[in-house]
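Protocol step 4 of 6: structure prediction from sequence.
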Amino acid sequence: MDFISGLIGQLNGIVWGVPMLVLILGVGIFLTVGLKFMPILNIGPAFKLMWDGRGASGKGEIPPFQALMTAMSATIGTGNIAGVATAVFIGGPGALFWMWMTALLGMATKYAEAVLAVNYREKDENGSYVGGPMYYIKNGMGKKWAWLGTLFAVFGAVACFGIGNAVQSNSIAQVLESNFSFSPLMVGLIIMVLAGGVILGGLKRVGKFAGALVPVMAVAYIVCGLIILLMNLGEIGPAIMTILEHAFTPASAQGGFAGATVWMAIRFGVARGVFSNEAGLGSAPIAHASAQTDEPVRQGLIAMLGTFLDTLVICSITGLVIVISGAWTEGASGAALTSAAFEQILPGWGGYLVAISLAVFAFTTIVGWSVYGERCAEYLFGPKAVLPFRLLFIVALPVGAIMELDFVWLLGDTLNAMMAIPNLVALAVLSPVVFKLTKRYFSQQQAPNGVTES
């Protein structure tokens, strides 16, 4: 295990090096500028489209709103609680700034992913609409690039057992053990039974599950977080100044915090930002490709809200509470740091709030990522591979619950990057299609208030 961990650690250092950060941020900047900042300028109208998307508006499997909720069920998870804390612990408060920057640029990236996913989707042998990076690489870039789509599908099918399975079940088991003394194995078995009941029902059951639970859990966490921040209103300004200061200058060692360079702030801010909102990863467009819509741009506008809500709202709340509490200087990391921060501000029940939130967030991520993994497996082996994949995914959950946490996080982080590379290349190559479809859509619209023509 030490040898494997060392090997994956070396690979992680390569795939999350300067080239990857340049690729993620570079593609985000290129798409944002190419779209004339349209995603950032259209957040309000996008929320209206999301609300209207509760019903079907074209061909597909699930309503546009459920497609977004399915994607968000996979993104709102341990990254919002443990991931933010890990970024701050290793990279200092400045890592939060780079998470924000990654999210702002990631809105354009997520928008482009969903536009391409709907535009290049196809029907499988069962008549279901399927899509995602592997399909827009094959159908958009041509047969000579089909190997790149296959590469994405391989990474996605394997990655889902890390980021979408082991990381999540492990985090649930750890937080319930530390707060309620539950056995990790028992927790893993319970997760297996509950998740199996949803996953075996297929995409439509997952969509209904996500459409019902995700809005409730997100709103509940946001409300609780905002109450905490309002209780410490005078500390928000200094906390933001601390974040901005350490985004561009090294953070010195304090208490149990070992200090961080600007490079560490950038690296872990970007890496944890991508881990949280998945913009550029290529996972979310797999869900959006199933939306009942005939307009790729409309689904793209809805899709980008996933990045906005995940990082700029939920992760920001977590990060600000951590910085305001001062717990980031005390040596704890991951979910333990977030729990300590909330407990410090809300003695007696802050830690339990984090434990319950993380458990629910991580559970929905498991369900959402099962869809991504099975779509990748279907692309590689056909529809007959779906049921065996679901069973394997479900059975793997208790194993993840009892694995070593550091190895699980390292594996998930590395596989994230491996997935992102083919997808980011495809986004850059197919960007003219995104720009063309966007221009056509807005030229056909009588632009409502706040909508800027592209």
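Step 5 (inspection) to follow. The first strand starts at residue 122 and ends at 123.
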